[in-house]
From TrEMBL:
<dbReference type="InterPro" id="IPR050275">
    <property type="entry name" value="PGM_Phosphatase"/>
</dbReference>
<dbReference type="InterPro" id="IPR029033">
    <property type="entry name" value="His_PPase_superfam"/>
</dbReference>
<dbReference type="Pfam" id="PF00300">
    <property type="entry name" value="His_Phos_1"/>
</dbReference>
<dbReference type="InterPro" id="IPR013078">
    <property type="entry name" value="His_Pase_superF_clade-1"/>
</dbReference>
<dbReference type="GO" id="GO:0005737">
    <property type="term" value="C:cytoplasm"/>
</dbReference>
<dbReference type="GO" id="GO:0016791">
    <property type="term" value="F:phosphatase activity"/>
</dbReference>
<protein>
    <submittedName>
        <fullName>Histidine phosphatase family protein</fullName>
    </submittedName>
</protein>
Amino acid sequence: MTTTFFLVRHAAHDRVGSVLCGRMPGVTLGALGQAQAQGLAGRFADESVAHIRTSPLERAVETAEPIALRIGLSLEICDDIAEIDFGAWSGTSFEALAQDPRWASWNNARSTSRPPYGETMLEAQTRIVGAMERLRGRYPGRSVVLVSHSDVIKAALLYHLGMPIDAYARFEVEPASISTLVVGEWGSKVLRLNEVVAA
């Protein structure tokens, strides 16, 4: 018996690509992101989904709400699928981060690096994989939507692909994308990666 997981990255906000938002509050979807969220809701309209959870951050909740409304389920907040805690880097522009040698170390060796006062990507992987295992036990033979963040989704996919955390840059997880995998006692299989839904 397997459980299907739809790992959804939140839709676009106005700081994507310019600021490492991390867990900073007040980051909400822009006009494009709102349209993408509606597109995601349409994508799931014909799916048989048993449960939907979201990261507590605003941009994820705003992405998940239209999906939950469309499929007729209540939305559950889940801290275990929240964004990586980037600590002191949260809210810093990527331009400024490029001047910080610790940023280069983080991106070159995620398996052994930690953001200042933050968490490692391996710790984030432990969070999301643990959440998925608990949900697998609760929803055998059914489907679950998890609305999360790029690096956290990558961490889950790397685990299920049997790849090291340092391989995180080998594939993309774009805003408003869906990555689909099935997980069972026998192991797991990725069915679709980075399925981008049109706004």
